Amino acid sequence: MPLIVESFNDAAYPFNHAEDCDTVLCVASNTILQFEERRYFEAIESHGREKPKLQLTLSQVYAPSLIRTR
Question: For residues 22 and 38, what is the distance between their CA atoms, to the nearest angstrom?
Answer without folding.
Answer: 9
